[in-house]
Design a protein that fits this description.
The protein has 88 residues and is of the alpha/beta class. The protein is built from three helices and five strands.
């Protein structure tokens, strides 16, 4: 298996930091890491060659389940396990 092409790894602690990071590196090819499995496989096979990998895990406000009046909000980083265990 070929070695991964070198890339920059960032893990912002807030949505504001994410916004600043993306603005500062607007010209770079970037990919988001949430779980990692698909991205890492694609990088190892050469299908993806990002210059910047942005780890979204741990960002506040992107995970959770919130039932509202006539809709159900599910955050982008909500795990399948969380969905299975939720009482709503």
């Amino acid at each position: 298996m070929p070695a991964l092409k070198p890339f920059r790894y960032e893990r912002p602690a807030s949505l504001e930091q994410l916004s600043i990071l993306l603005a500062a590196h607007a010209g770079m090819i970037h990919r988001y890491l949430a779980g990692g499995t698909d991205l890492l496989v694609a990088m190892r096979t050469g299908k993806e060659k990002p210059e910047l990998v942005v780890d979204l895990k741990g960002l506040p406000g992107l995970s959770g389940i919130n039932p509202e009046e006539n809709k159900l909000w599910i955050g982008a980083l909500t795990t399948i396990h969380s969905l299975e265990m939720d009482e709503n």
